[in-house]
Amino acid sequence: MVGERLRAGPPGHHGSPRPGQLARALAGRPARWRPAGPAVRRPTTARDDEGAHVKIGSISGLTYRVGDLDRTTAFYEALGFRPGKRDERQATVYVNWFWLTFTTADDDAGAAVAPGSGPTLYLKVDDIDEAHAAVRAAGFTPSTEPRKVPAGRREFLLLDPDGHRLAFFTK
């Protein structure tokens, strides 16, 4: 069932997954991969297999609040990100199909967002020691040396100019 399309209704119909469908699709996965809490609805009737579908194709990018677009884009371009669209308030860089958009504007709700807050961006590399040496050769100082973490991978951390965490890792 993993990878099963969450659907309901006729083809082309859009909406929410049927009650219990997500839980059934995740059955058999290790507990760490299952959503916790009330987000997983339990089936209540035999008709739970009818309803809408949601199909997420990929996670495509992130948006980070930054203080200086020029400084931030120069940092990411030095790491090998490809420059993309830019205007006076935001700039986008790419690695493969994944994008990072940096903005100097507050969030859409008008609340100020502190630069450096947000998720850690994980960047998979083939050789962690080689990547660490290349980052240092580019003039950056990683926060940590390459190390094995409890999850079993080797990684090192680097902060961007606004304090956003980048974790370079290899399995």
From TrEMBL:
Pfam short name (any one): Glyoxalase
InterPro entries linked: Glyas_Bleomycin-R_OHBP_Dase, Glyas_Fos-R_dOase_dom, VOC_core
Chain residue ranges for the region called Disordered: 1-51
PROSITE patterns registered for this protein in UniProt: VOC
SUPFAM superfamilies: Glyoxalase/Bleomycin resistance protein/Dihydroxybiphenyl dioxygenase
Domain (VOC): residue spans on this chain: 58-171
Ranges of Low complexity composition bias in the record: 9-20
The name this protein goes by in its record: VOC family protein
Organism annotation: Micromonospora endolithica
